[in-house]
Write the structure tokens for this entry.
Amino acid sequence: MTFRHLTVLILLVSCHDQSLPYEIVGDSILMPLTDTMPDAKRGKDLFSNRGDAHCVLCHMHDEAQVEFQGNLGPDLSGVGERLTPGQIRLRIVDYEFIRPDTTMPSYFRTHNLTQVRSDKIGKTVLSPLEIEDIIAFLSHHAD
């Protein structure tokens, strides 16, 4: 599989924390999306909450500790042993870059989307810090 090399500048309409431009290299976004220190505990909470990031609607994780976790996507238990933080980052930001036929939404892309509510146009699903928090959870596990 061949990956494109792109530099994508981010313009965020509604985020509370500072976002940084990112560069896609192969199948990764190597640098964090924010300078703010991520928190694995917040990431675990986001991953586990059906009303926030919605991760458990499609994925399961041994540490999520919620009933009825999804099985549409892969089990993400131990994903930090299989993928680098940069690889996880791109998959959350815009998995369609890697798999154009995916059903996983792009949580940080704001362009070339379909079926977007009018009040959500130009807005990301997750903030840069929320994405980094989830990466911290998936990469290092929360206590």
Q: What stands out?
A: The first helix runs from residue 40 to 48. Strands lie at 6-8, 22-25, 28-29.
